[in-house]
Specification:
Largest sheet: 6 strands, antiparallel
Distance between the termini: 41 Å
Shape: globular
Structural class: alpha+beta
Strand content: 15-25%
InterPro entries: LRAT, LRAT_dom
Radius of gyration: 17 Å
GO biological process, one term: vitamin A metabolic process
Oligomer: single chain
Helix content: 40-55%
Protein name: LRAT domain-containing protein
Pfam families: LRAT
Organism: Pleurodeles waltl (Iberian ribbed newt)
Order of helices and strands: HEEEHHHEHEHEHH
């Protein structure tokens, strides 16, 4: 028997992501001036990178040489050992199924694949923390050591938790904290 609620949620998420990609696609076409249209010369190894998505902000750690480590929900590593297929850009269906199955991986992608057509903000989170970031080399080394499969939780272990641990030695997600605090405001 098929789970119609799960099918409905997957359908809605696909439509929201498709709508967001169509908006981002215009921006990508306007700014794409070649195969490598992101100026990575302004990035330093260990920088925390942010890109806007349809409903949230996605985070990664710049490793140098046009590479970014980031935590992505992805079902494919749980069902396949084919490294070439797994390393391809994560599709929306793979991402949604990864969220639902609570499986992810910390992976390394190019800056272009990480940004997915969005503008990149560098180290914006430094203003939100009272602690100083770790050295850029330590940040990048932590990220590299964590590459591989990992359990996923939208609220407790997402891409923001990954980068805040790497850069500030704290597991924090301001996005999920905001959602949780807004939920509690309803009862006050």
């Amino acid at each position: 028997m098929r789970n119609t609620l799960l099918d409905f949620i997957t359908f809605l998420l696909e439509k929201v992501i498709l709508f967001g990609r169509s908006r981002q696609g215009t921006k990508k076409e306007e700014t794409n001036t070649g195969a490598n249209y992101y100026d990575v010369s302004c990035f330093k190894r260990g920088d925390l990178l942010e890109v806007s998505r349809t409903l949230f902000v996605h985070f990664g750690i710049y490793l140098g040489d046009n590479r970014v480590a980031h935590l992505m929900p992805d079902i494919l590593p749980a069902i396949s050992r084919d490294k070439s297929r797994i390393q391809t850009v994560v599709t929306n269906k793979r991402l949604i199924m990864g969220v639902l199955a609570k499986v992810a991986s910390i992976r390394v992608d190019t800056v272009e694949n990480f940004a997915y057509g969005a503008s990149i903000v560098i180290n914006h989170m430094d203003r939100k923390f009272t602690v100083k970031p770790l050295s850029n080399e330590e940040v990048a080394t932590r990220a590299e050591k964590l590459v591989g499969s990992i359990a996923y939780s939208l609220l407790w272990n997402n891409c923001e938790h990954f980068v805040t641990y790497c850069r500030y030695d704290k597991l924090v997600s301001f996005q999920t904290d905001k959602v949780n605090s807004e939920k509690y405001l309803i009862y006050k």
